[in-house]
Amino acid sequence: MRKAVISLVLVSAVITGCGSAEHTPRGTPSPSAGEARQLTDAEQVRISDAQQQLIGTCMRRQGFEFWEAERLSLEESRTLGYVLDDVGWARKHGYGSRIQAKEAAARASNPNLAYRRSLSEQRRQAYDEALDEGVDAPVIAAEIPGGGTVRKRMGGCVAEAEKKLYGDPRAWFRAEKAVGHLRSLYVPRVLADQRFSAAQNAWSRCMKRAGYVYRDPGAARQSAVARAHRAAEPEVFEAERRLAVADATCARNTGLRPIGEERESHYVARLRDRYGEALDTHTRLQHQALDRAEKIVGPRA
């Protein structure tokens, strides 16, 4: 049973490439490695697409059918971050609730899941082993900032795809988890920072003039998320859209995003003495994966 659960998670998440937007208090860059350029959303999506194609090629080579995920447009695939300041995007998509509904529908109708269910028990086991080796896969571990350890089973076509992109899946896993969990260390400092707080207060005053009372962008977005399940209703989506436009307009007028990005970079830099190696490895392997992905798939429209 556990083997099936592991593979179902991989099929519905890694294989479909669907995920929600990040809502951490930061701008578009990830924690930077020195002065190295951080990947854009478009470049990260290209790596994800290449990974799917590699997994599909591997699965078909082992005698199984495989369908790559329905691809959203590049515009639909953007990461919002904590601060939304693209007024045009907000005017069209609000906070992206309809995009998230589209992703959920794609996960639910994923043909890989239906195909797996159609297999005999023996073939289903072989499918799981081909995909990720299930419970028999080697386990890799990474210590995370702030304490604790995360583990991941790494095998099958998923491991093969990561190796072709990143070269060393273990090094990538350790760096990715370290950098991702750095947020628990620097986000509270950004939120408490005087310059960021002043900009956020200015954003709140701007929103009040527009007819909305929220202390920060997270609160505004959360109010829309609470109604997201009704986004198919025109009046609900219109309310989301109006709120997102006001949010983005105030963020742009107060410079909240560039101030947040600068403060984030400042506090991440103060962590480099301890986590510089992880930051550098993360950026280096991302760029390596992008170079390889560009030879496998084209950019999304």
TrEMBL record:
Top-level taxon: Bacteria
Organism, scientific name: Streptomyces lomondensis
The protein's name in its UniProt record: Lipoprotein
